[in-house]
Amino acid sequence: MKREKLDKVWFGVFTGIFLPFMIAFLAFLFSKGGPNLRAWLIRIEIADIYIQAISSCVFPNILLFLLFNRLDMLKSCKGVLAATICWLILVFILKFFL
To answer: Pick from 86, 92, 87, 78: which is nearest to 24 by CA?
Structure first.
């Protein structure tokens, strides 16, 4: 696919939101315990590390941002930044209001 086709803000937002879910899924696949997603999420909640888990999953967005920047896909770069700011707002709400 041509870069011009993918250089859209919506593509950056989609990848910026989708990538952390993929990272979380990979963390689930490689974690100890049974193959039960619900039990894994409960373990994260009981250990009170859900904010750290979200932050760790969002961190690869930096690499995605840098990749889009290197490829001169600045509109997609803006979308990744917007998605990361949405994740930041979610973490802020979870940390200070819940």
So the answer is: 87
Beta-strand ranges (E) seen in 4-89 are none
Cα torsion 75, 77, 81, 83: sign: positive
Convert the pLDDT of each residue in 10-32 to its tens digit: 999 999 999 999 999 999 999 88
DSSP secondary structure letter of residue 47: T
What b/e readout covers 17-29, taking b as 16+ CB neighbours within 10 angstroms? bebbeebbeeeee
Residue 83: its H or E element = helix 74-96
Q: Where are the alpha helices (DSSP H) in 30-73?
A: 37-46, 50-58, 60-70
> What pLDDT does residue 81 have?
98
Angle at 50 between CA 48 and CA 51, to 5 degrees: 105
Domain count, the chain: 1
Domain that holds residue 60: 3-96
